[in-house]
Amino acid sequence: MIDKVIRFRRVASTQDTAKRFVHKGRELAVTALSQDKGRGRQGRSWFSPHGGLYVSLLLFPKKRLTSIPLLASLSVIRTLEGLGFSKLLIHWPNDVLLKDRKVCGVVCERYQNAMICGIGLNVNIERFGPRNINATSLSVEAGRNFDVEEILNCLLEQFNNLYDELQKRGLKIKEVLNYISGLGEAVEVVTAKGTIKGTVYDIDDDWALLLRDESGIIKKFHDGDVRRLQW
Ligand code: BTN
């Protein structure tokens, strides 16, 4: 349960700043107004100018670790629905899409006995660089600015509810399948070990992606980038 927020104006990455608090053994959130070296999944950088929401949740989950990234994405979706947004989807493993464009990314890292779950949400960002061509923000979509602090409070409330539920009874992945993009679609999954083409078959209770490859074999992925194939 996150009941403390430690705020910074500018840091390299809230993921690294959060590590400084691990020894306290208390669940908390670290935020910054901007990041100089925001990190994404798979060694990518995360565009982090002033106007975005950058938060790292320092967690000590007792069980069901693999569902934490999904929980974070789901908390973002519920928060954005509360603001009136629709057409929200989760692009496995943990991007949140708004009208098919990426509005939020989640990265989870294990550190000592903790898990640090970083969430970057494009709130009041008007322009993106050439490396973020498929990105959007809440302000671009709604044509107005939002209160980042208010969004953070909603997000933490949503996260705490889901996290509590998860630790007590587990999360039924089937309940969130409605939000998952790409089921049944032809995709390629790019991993460190190679690229595999196939059709998205299902998401299992571990939040792993099940892909039916071109020879009909079901393959399981815990990480990777899913790219829709054009026909
Ligand atoms: C991704 O889509 O690859 C994940 C992006 C995660 C970005 C967030 S912003 C807050 C936290 N601090 C970081 O350096 N990264 C995460």
Question: Keyphrases for this structure?
Answer:
231 residues, binds biotin, 5-stranded antiparallel beta sheet, alpha+beta
Describe this structure in words.
Helix 2 crosses helix 4. Strand 9 and strand 10 form a beta hairpin. It contains 4 helices and 12 strands; from the N terminus they run βαββαββββααβββββ. Helices cover 21% and strands 34% of the residues. The model has no long low-confidence stretch (mean pLDDT 92). It has a 7-stranded mixed sheet. The chain has a 5-stranded antiparallel sheet with strand order 11-10-9-8-12, with no helix packed on it. The protein is an alpha+beta fold. Bound molecules: biotin. The site of biotin (BTN) has 20 residues, from helix 1, strand 3, strand 6 and strand 7.
What's the arrangement of secondary structure elements?
Layout: E1 5-11, H1 14-19, E2 28-35, E3 53-59, H2 68-82, E4 88-91, E5 95-98, E6 101-111, E7 114-121, H3 138-142, H4 148-169, E8 186-191, E9 194-203, E10 209-213, E11 218-221, E12 225-228
The protein binds biotin.
Biotin is lined by residues 13-15, 35, 38-41, 44, 46, 54-56, 95, 105-107, 118-120.
Distinct helical segment count: 4
The strands making up the biggest β-sheet line up spatially as 1-2-3-7-6-5-4
Radius of gyration: 17 Å
Query: How would you sum up the global shape?
Result: globular
List the helices and strands in order.
Answer: EHEEHEEEEHHEEEEE
Percent helix range: 10-25%
Summing up helix and strand content along with how strands pair, one would put the structural category as alpha+beta
Strand count, sense and barrel status of the largest sheet are: 7 strands, mixed
Bound molecules: biotin
DSSP strand count:
12
